[in-house]
Request: fold
Amino acid sequence: MRREPPVTDPFVRMYHVSKSYMAGTFALHDVSLEVDRGEFVFLTGPSGAGKTTLLKLLFAAERPSEGQIILRGRNITRLREYGIPALRRRIGVVFQDFKLLGHRSVEENVGMALEVRGTPPREIRSRVFRVLKQVGLQHRRYHRAEALSGGEQQRVALARALVNDPELLLADEPTGNLDPELTLEIMDLIASAGARGTTVVVATHDLSLIDRYAKRTLHLEAGCVKRDAGAAAISA
Amino acid sequence: MRLLVVHLFYAARSAIRGLWASPVTTGVALVTIAVSLVLVGAFGLLVTNMQGLLDRVGEDLRVTAYLEEGISDEDLKRLALLTQTVEGVASVETISKDDALRIFDERLGGRSGLLEGLEYNPLPASLEITLVESQRSVGGLRVVVESLDGLPGIEELSYGEEWVEGYARALSMIRGLGVGVACVLALATLLIVGNTIKLAVYARRDEIEILGLVGASRSFVRIPFLLEGFTQGTLAALMALGLLYILYRILTPSLAAGIELLMGHASPAFFSPFQMFLLVASGAFVGALGSAAAFVEGGRR
Ligand SMILES: Nc1ncnc2c1ncn2[C@@H]1O[C@H](COP(=O)(O)OP(=O)(O)OP(=O)(O)O)[C@@H](O)[C@H]1O
Ligand SMILES: [Mg+2]
Reply:
């Protein structure tokens, strides 16, 4: 189902990337890193460390002040405005605040990610049904999103991120306000997407998750990568 | 091709949703635009009908050249021939002093005692000049009159100038006023549509943001709003057309009586199909333009 990974090129490459929202302060400072295709990476660090900023740079919601970002061989820092939509259609993003339309149905919310690419309605229905089944919400597809519980909304957000079968899944605190049980449910869904070959970056405060899943972890502090621990290093 | 159809389907659905989502705003905008268009349309009707009247009057236009006292028959003949060669002149009829007196007499119904006491004939000889069809307008008339003016032997030219020119001046004033009103109202309509669309954009800012985040192109986001403006303009123009027609049917009978008294014949006309199409098309155009302007002003995303 997945495309073959091209030889050895890393999927994401950041070269000396800095981001400054205000002159004199850095949200990210001289960050260089690589993420391989199919890799699963946790992004952690204290509040304000720059986790959200890093994710935003990857789907071109923000532009770096300095440095280059190469995504699947493309320099996205040189991307023109009209090139951004095509990039985002290959990326699934789970936002910390869900970003769902409360008065629209679950089906419509998830379907939006396919409508923007011109997928015909019938195909959308079947693909949305399939992905909602994955997250266990197929029976609620006609409910308005705002009528769902927080955990259910989180799963809808994940379904929307996964419905276009993305090459890269970015999740910003996807378990932020959930109880431990729901947290594991969501994380298992993300991990299984990773197991199917999607490259995954998850920003989280939750150290228990990092212990439990034993994946590569990038620790950010004040905009700098303080530690880049591979899966082996953590479990050792 | 298929992709285009699918995209159009989503855009149309989104536009209809948008129009339904705030029926009050939509309704107020529709009525306001319709009223503007009714005013513009009313001016249009007035101008076309007045123009039509003027054109018909033109058919009766003729010039009378009163000749100098004591002009010889020979000179008179020569002048008549000369006049005949002036561009725009169709026919020239010579009316001698005697003819003039006879016509005057006939007009008075034979009670010629009035003139009998006169020792001499006070009426001048004249030339009755009709114009070729292409010159039968106020402008054409003026050109011919200018050519005739100054021919030797002509004392005075008469062509109902006060009336014709007064009417033409009134017409061009009304037309100018109409154009001015149309411009002002077009601008107002633009602002109204622009504002409605701005409100719609604001009301749907969450949706617009999310669409952008999941990879919607700029046109995917904007075309529904353009369609909304277009639809508003079209619907409002259709409403205006209906309203104008009702007004036309109500007002024509009483107006026609007045005009008939003045002009002899009149049947105020409604818009031709092409003019109706123009009105609707301009409504649609202004609507689409208004929503485009909302984006230019409202900036990005
Ligand atoms: N749009 C913005 N304008 C100005 N400053 C910003 C903006 N977004 C983030 N920042 C600043 O950049 C720094 C990094 O913010 P960022 O949101 O990336 O941190 P974070 O690691 O995601 O924090 P948290 O764990 O609280 O979500 C912070 O100091 C923040 O104040
Ligand atoms: Mg954050």
